[in-house]
Each structure stands twice: as C-alpha cells, then as structure tokens.
Amino acid sequence: MKSDATSHDMTMNGAAEAQGRHAGIPEPSRYGNNHQLALYLAALVIFVALSYAVYVTPLNLNDFLMHLFLFETRSLYRTFERAFIDHPHGPEWRPLQLLSAQIIYQYLAQGYEHLVFKGMLVVSLCVTGGLFVRLLKVESWPDVLAGVIAIFVLVGHQSFTGAVEAVYPYGVEIILVACELAVLNILLRKSSIASELVALALSVFAIFLNEKGGLVGVTYIVGSVLRLPGGTLRSAAFLFAIYVLVVLYRISWFKTVFDITERSVAHDPAGALFNTVAPILNILISDPRYVVFRAIPQAFMARPWAIIYLASSLLLSALIVAWAWSNLRQAKGTYSDELKVAAILPFLLLGSAMFGPFSQKDYIAIMALTGYAVVSFYALKWLFSHTLQAPRLATYALLLSLGVGLAFCWSVRAAGLVFHLRNASFSYQEEWVFELDRLGKAREFPASVTQPIIARLQPEALWRPLNDPNLIFPLPIVRLMQGRGCPEVCN
Q1: 347, 402 contact by CB (below 8 A)
Q2: 42 vs 36: CA distance, rounded Å
Q3: Cis omega (within 30 of 0) on the bond before 288?
Q4: Is 90 exceeded by the pLDDT of residue 243?
Q5: 137 lies in a domain?
Q6: Cys staple from 138: which of 24, 40, 120, 143, with CB 3.0 to 4.6 Å?
C-alpha cells in the first residue's frame, strides 16, 4: 500500500511539473550556481590582470615622495592635530587621508613602501571587484555576458583611472569605491543591527577620508528612504544628522562662503557652471575632460579612441534610459529593487557635480561611476532578454548588433586602462630619473631626510627598465588605446 501511494505521489508530482512547464513556470536551472561562478571566474581573470599592471607600475613621484618627506619631519600627533584641530583655515576637509598614510608609512611599510602601498592598492582592487560582482545576480549565460560588460564599464571608464594610479598619497579613490559598493550590497540584503552599524561606520569613515566619500552616506540615506531591504529610516536619519554636523563644523572655520571655493579654477559664472556640469557629462558621455571637450572634436577628426568613447557612452546611457522608462511603465506603483538602485544614480551624479569647481580631473566623478556600472548591468540584462525574444529577424539583428558593439567598445576601453598603466610606468620611470628634485620637492627638505628615502626607493622604481608603449605597439592598437590620460590635444 505504501509503495502504491509513493508511486501515485511521484506520478502526480511529475504531472504537476509537466503542467507547470506548459503553463510557462520556469524550471530550476540545471546549472545551479554555475552562472554566478562563471561571472566570478571572469572577474578574477580581469582583476588579476589589472592587479599585475597596477603592482608593477612604479610609485607616483609627484605626490608620493613629497608626503614621505613630510612624514619624516612631522610627528604623528602633529599630523592628527592639523587634521582635526589646528590648521591655518581650520581642520582638514579630509582629515584621515594624510593621517592614515603616515600611520601606514611609519608602522607598516618600514622600508617596504612599494610592497605595502601597492599591495594595499591590489587588495583594495580585488575587494572592489568581489563586491561589484556580488551585486550582479545572474541566472543565464546572457546575464553572465551582461555582467562581464558591466565589469568592463566599471574599469573601462576613464574616471576609474585615478582609482588605480594611487596618486595622493595612496589608493584613496579605490577605497571610496569599495565603501560605496559595500553599502550598496548592504542595502540590497535584509537589514540587521550589524549591517546598519557597518553601513554607518563606512559612511562616516568615507567622508573623513575624502570629501567625495560623503556620497557613500548619500547612497545609504537615499536607499533607506526608497525602502531598499537593507536600509532603515532610523539609521538614515542618524547618519544624516552626523553629516550635517560634519559639514557645519567644517564650514564654521571659513570666514565667507567664497573661501570654500578658493581652489576653483573658474573665474566667471559661466566657467563655474561648466565645471559643475562637467562631472555629470563625463560619466554619461565621456566628455568633457580636463576643462574642455576633447572626445567630441576628436571624433569629428575620426580618431578611433574618441569614436569608441563617445559611441560606447552614448549608447549605454541611452540604453539605461530606455530600460528605466520601460520598467517604470510596467511597475504600476510597485518598484523593483533594481529601479530603486537606479534612482540613487541621479543623486550620485548631482553629488559629483558639487565637486566640479574643485577639480577638472577625470576621477572627480568616480563615485557616480559605481552606480552607473551597476545600473548598466540591469539595462544590459534587459537588452539581451529582448534580443532572445525578438519576433523578427531584423529586430534581432539590430539588438544583437547593439549588444556586440557595446561589448567590443567597453572591452577596448578596459584594455585601454592596462595600456595607460603601462604608459604611466614609462613616464614615472623618466620622472624618477630626470624630475626627482622638482616633482618630489626634495630641495624643500633637508638632505638628511631626503637622501636615505631616495636611495631606497629609486632603485625599486628603475629595476625593470620599460619602453614607451606608444612606440612598441602597432599604431592601430595605439590609436584605439590612447583615450586615457590627457590624449592628443592636451597642451
């Protein structure tokens, strides 16, 4: 009897499964977590290759060496005092930046600066890669492809360059990006007391490390207001109060509001407005860069790198808008977590615009890049799902061409980062030979301080002589890869 009952249940279950398949209910994937594993493996290959290029690049002379001289002539307490208490214009806007660098130099590096500072950069880069992939939930092989392209968007955008060059005085930008991605991961998972405390700690740490880090807290506050599962209004309100106190404390040291913008290079309202909008456009269309439009005029001159930069950014930004509009129309009052994450992106863009008057470098908008790359994954998944379901051959061919074009352009841009790092390695070595006194400001410090450090670091920077990659690579490759830095028209 028991056997007959079991057989009957199995028959009924089989019939139910068959009925479910005919009704359109998706079956569990035969591959299990293989899709997610494949994405992690692809990310591992990408970030290991990038980590190697980062590690073998010599330490940046311009900012790095000067700060080592400074650390040798100033006590740790004095650095803390200048950062938080006593400064000619009040405390520093980024009090943890030099303080943490001096702690690392005096207590961790101890003569192994390249190993420690570059090692920290590599670890931060790998953590960033892991946190980013953890945000990308893939369920099919087209999803895996969308995830790989999203990784290329993250590392291929020109604003990511500053995160791996470690210019001031170590990899601050990549740490801020890692904090941003960690908070996004927290927001997209079930809330707990521990996760709230971690999000608060990361947000406060980020704003004290660098003023751009304030956007980490903005992400958590906006995500909590939008009711993402990992955020709470209680923690958002508490964090908002902390941020208000931090900003008021900083501003209270300035006599007038104009003192805050003393670093701005704009001398008229039109220039200030341009610098404010520039970081937003830099993310969305990859131009302007370094104060002026560069890619657009170069594209009209048929420069391959400029065409790739503009085409990839314009197409991807348009795709994101189309995806968001389509999902909003279908939402009917119930918004997915993906749409809520997309709603954070405008706040990141506007937050980046606040720092436009202070710097014209590409990496000023890097915090908005994290949201842009994550949302690009959602849009690419949507594109590939529509490609597979295209009813007509012409529509299928058009959507497939768009996907292939985006994959090609962004992979070229990601490869361009490695090319740029190779170029930077060659340039840094020349600086260590010919520009050491000027860029490192060695003449401004006693020789008893500068000479031992130079004698230790210069051989490390020059042990592996490098050639100019613009001369050793074929010209077509150079023309594709040269969009980083200040390309072709930077005078």
Answers
A1: no
A2: 10
A3: yes
A4: yes
A5: yes
A6: 143
